[in-house]
Specification:
The protein is mainly α. It has two domains: 116 residues, no CATH class; 168 residues, Farnesyl Diphosphate Synthase. Helix 8 crosses helix 9 and helix 9 packs antiparallel against helix 13. The longest helix is centred in the C-terminal third of the chain and has 24 residues. It is globular and about 50 Å long. The relative contact order is 0.11.
Length: 285
């Protein structure tokens, strides 16, 4: 992480630079947007990246992280002394699209959960985290994409849950290195797969069944999202549909490989991503 990106006072880099550096699937999805909306979603995405980088920083103490996240909360509502140019840009988005400041604060609350919570007893507890770090991002994004039917909010909520569950499945091994287990404890118990086995990265039939269960949960959210997408807003939601397509492909890749997440880092190739993007663009011409 570039420490300058996480400092709300010192962030004198532009949103486009942050987006380019992130190498995110979301950045690829912006290709379908017009110039103005692309600029605006890039600003919002840069905000998300900056606060996420604060929470993930290995160079800051937990107390320092909380101070910086709180500074961002304050900058969402009012200008501060020597603040980051990005903060001004985000406030401009709030005014332009009548964005809910509370929803942006939900995203901050989501990354803050990683500062104090490393285990989730139930899926309902995990769902709160997924809502904050993914669904809330989607709910803000659709305001920038533009939509007509209020059911788009349901689409964004369900898709966010689907994307985050896919991330959790993919990152099981990586998250262990940070001492985090997002798989609900009740799910481990359901398949008689212990936390000790997970910590030892034991790959066995019970682990595969556990991951199949989580993948089924993700697929259910993808299905609910698809069912909720209003036909009149399909074109406006192409960026979100691109994300859905890429992550469905990633989930399928892991399923076919029996979830070897301890030894592999799953990702789609550039050509596979280009294919998914082209398919969505052609489908919505």
């Amino acid at each position: 992480m570039d420490p300058v990106l996480s400092d709300p006072v010192k962030t004198h880099v532009n949103a486009a630079k942050i987006t380019r550096q992130s190498k995110s699937n979301l950045a690829l999805a912006f290709i379908s947007l017009g110039r103005e909306r692309k600029r605006d979603i890039t600003i919002f995405y840069a905000f998300c990246r900056v606060i996420d980088d604060i929470a993930d920083s290995s160079e800051l103490s937990v107390a320092e992280k909380r101070v910086r996240l709180e500074a961002w909360r304050k900058m969402l509502r009012a200008a501060g002394a020597d603040e980051a140019p990005l903060a001004h840009d985000v406030r401009s988005l709030i005014d332009k699209y009548s964005l809910s400041t509370a929803m942006l604060e939900e995203i901050i609350a989501g990354v803050e959960m990683d500062l104090s919570i490393s285990r989730y007893a139930t899926f309902e507890e995990l769902r709160v985290y997924c809502y904050r770090v993914a669904s809330a991002v989607g709910l803000v994004s659709i305001e920038i994409f533009g939509y007509r039917n209020p059911r788009c909010k349901e689409y964004a909520l369900e898709l966010g849950l689907a994307l985050q569950m896919t991330n959790i499945i993919r990152d099981v091994g990586k998250d262990l290195r940070y001492g985090r287990i997002y798989l609900p404890q009740e799910d481990l118990a359901r398949f008689n797969y212990s936390e000790a086995e997970l910590q030892d990265r034991q790959y066995n039939e019970r682990f595969v069944r556990l991951m199949e269960f989580e993948a089924g949960r993700a697929r259910e959210f993808f299905s609910r999202a698809a069912a909720a997408l209003p036909s009149e807003d399909r074109r406006a939601m192409v960026p979100a549909q691109i994300m859905s397509s890429i992550y469905r492909g990633l989930l399928r890749q892991m399923e076919l490989d029996k979830f070897r997440v301890f030894e592999k880092e799953y990702r789609l190739s550039k050509m596979e991503k280009v294919g998914q993007i082209a398919a969505q663009l052609l489908k919505n011409i």
